[in-house]
Amino acid sequence: MAARLLFTNAGYAHSINLARSLRTGPEPVFIVGCNDDQFTLKRSDADKNYLVPPADHPEWGQALRWIVDKEGLDLILPTLDSDPESLSRVRKQLREHLFLPSAAVLELCRDKSRLIALLRSNGVDAPASHQVKDLRHITRIFQELRGRPLWCRVRGGAGSLGALPVRSPEQARNWIRYWKEMRNVAVSDFMLSEYLPGRDFGCQSLWKDGRLVLIKTYERLSYLGTGSRASQVSSTAALGKTVFEPKVVDTCVRAIRLLDAKVSGVFSVDLKENARGIACITEINAGRFSSATNIFDMVGAHNMVQSFVRLAKGLPVDIEDTYDAASDWYMLRGIDGAPCIFHASEFSDNINKIGKGRARVGAA
């Protein structure tokens, strides 16, 4: 029997990627989408769609409950970064249809400064960091962290919000002033961290009652939209590659176990190597799948999203080796169109080379 699912914020790329992953899996699905933006909802490829109030509206939870009951749905899947916390707020109305980490875990992971402090105090690799308490405090942070540049960013949110490498206290102050004056972001919402110059990893995992069920890793080789970003990086990869990195897995597993002894749900962890080549956790997105989830679902022995649905429904999941590592698969993404996923052995298929020039890698 097909799993019957509700996607929040249907029509955005995250929900389209989730639907793609589920529909390429071995088990049938029926997907219902909802959104408070009718234009975005028009792009949804769900089997059925509903226009609902915004998530901060007092009737949002009631609207979702009505859809779940009317359509006989099994599970609600959050798609955007803000969705897990929005769903957590109406957990009492939707409890049996949610598979989320606890409210405390969601709150902790939303604050990157608090999270990194917890990790470092427990010996888990994470960048040395300080919250910016006021603009005068910035000079002292530069003195304590010493290195140049430092990484300046907003403590919450997704997509490298407010992120910029800065070489001097004055650069950091000017950047934070701009965000305060033009975007109404408080000074205390910023943090400064040691700059991590190395490889960039994504690690996604599924948990049930404190037990690791499935985990996968990939490396970001280039980024979408960097030409318009001052930071020149993004959490969204234009070109990604599956990798076998047991040390990265170990770091992520240790970190997630710190959050809750009975942790459940999906966790997407971002890591970057420091100057010594040690992968450090920069953030943990709890309760939702990464926008790059297709590289985890369409490659390897197990489809992560379908495994998540089975776990949430209390169905058996036959996974012996929790680290499902299928090396040398690539995912190439652009602004429009489905991701292109291929193995390294297929790299030159249907490509005719002219001249002796060396092809660029990661120029998407």
User: Percentage of helical residues?
Assistant: 25-40%
Shape: globular
**Unreliable residue runs:** none
Which architecture of the largest domain per CATH?
2-Layer Sandwich
The radius of gyration computed from the alpha-carbon positions, rounded to a whole number of angstroms, is 21 Å
CATH class of the largest domain: Alpha Beta
CATH H-tier superfamily of the largest domain: ATP-grasp fold, B domain
- The end-to-end span amounts to 40 Å
**Strand fraction:** 15-25%
CATH topology of the largest domain: D-amino Acid Aminotransferase, Chain A, domain 1
Largest sheet: 7 strands, antiparallel
Number of DSSP strands?
15
Helix/strand structural class? alpha+beta
Total helical segments = 12
SSE order, as H and E?
A: EHEHEHEHHHHEHEEHEEEEHEEHHEE
Strand order of the largest sheet: 13-12-9-10-11-14-15
Protein described:
- The chain is of the alpha+beta class and 364 residues long.
- The chain folds into 3 domains: 96 residues, Rossmann fold (3-Layer(aba) Sandwich), CATH 3.40.50.20; 67 residues, Dna Ligase, domain 1 (2-Layer Sandwich); 147 residues, D-amino Acid Aminotransferase, Chain A, domain 1.
- The protein has 12 helices and 15 strands.
- It has a 7-stranded antiparallel beta sheet with strand order 13-12-9-10-11-14-15. A 4-stranded parallel beta sheet has the order 3-2-1-4, sandwiched between helices. Strands 5-8-6-7 form a 4-stranded antiparallel beta sheet, sandwiched between helices.
- The longest helix is centred in the middle third of the chain and has 15 residues.
- It is globular and about 60 Å long.
